[in-house]
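Treating backbone geometry as a discrete language has practical consequences that deserve illustration. In the encoding step, the backbone of a single protein was reduced to a row of integers, each denoting a local shape. The amino acid sequence and the backbone structure tokens for this protein are reproduced below.
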Amino acid sequence: MAGLTLPRQTLAPITPEIAAFLAMLAAERGAAANTIAAYRRDLADASARLGNLAMADGPALASLAGQWSGLAPSSLARKCSALRQFFGFLVDEGHRLDDPTPSLPSPRLIRPLPRLVGHEDIAALFATAEAEAAGNRREAVRTLVLLELLYGSGLRATELVSLPLSAVPRDVPMLNITGKGGVQRMVPVSTRARQALTRWLDLRGAGQGRQPSSRYLFPSTGKLGHLTRVRLFQLLRELAIRAGLAPDRLSPHVLRHAFATHLLAGGADLRVLQTLLGHADIATTEIYTHVEPSRLVALVNQRHPLAQLGHSD
């Protein structure tokens, strides 16, 4: 099947096969609306270039390499992933016997290491937040709790700001988190974080226009009814400035990275960390296994069997 060279913005109508695949993503995998929309665009783009996508053969898919040559590697990888999953679905459902996706291009992605903050930076952030919260001022205590949960429990920004009050049980040191795709998990809360949470629960209803009956742990007067992601970013960067750190080095995701990296450095198991972070695939968790070269050398010197043998001249 010959590939047609069409403009990228020309999208084909959604075929019954694509509609069924998207419905499966929503019903069986619990894919988020944004994820489904992205798959829809990518599959419609491929349909516009190849015609009936469900009937495309290997040479047709191979022709996409030239047509998508101007895309960034990450965009190309996303499109190819959508096609592989689509054709895998067709094979599983018996709509076709062969899988032509080995003909797709295989972009090589260099995954950047996450930005990190060290133990000294974390100590400076907490020292500043604790000092400011000492007077039990509402906003300062809230910032301390946000910091405790980001670094101490590894929550995503969206998970944190949208936490319902019911996610914080009074009798067990755990949070009930609903993560990506509606997947639920239990996340432990440290003793110091629970103490900060107790202070916050006494203060959360105070302030003009805020109702103690709000269903969210971090209520707001905005349309969402809870603290926004944008405001969370702002609060952290303002805290970084007051702690003497560069504000562009700090974000909710950076603190999540620090939570994971520092746990691994302390001896945590990768599978346990996968559960805490709510990763569906352990390959996502493995990015946190990066360590400084000096730590690698020390590990080999201390733990390898050869380190136990004496040296002879």
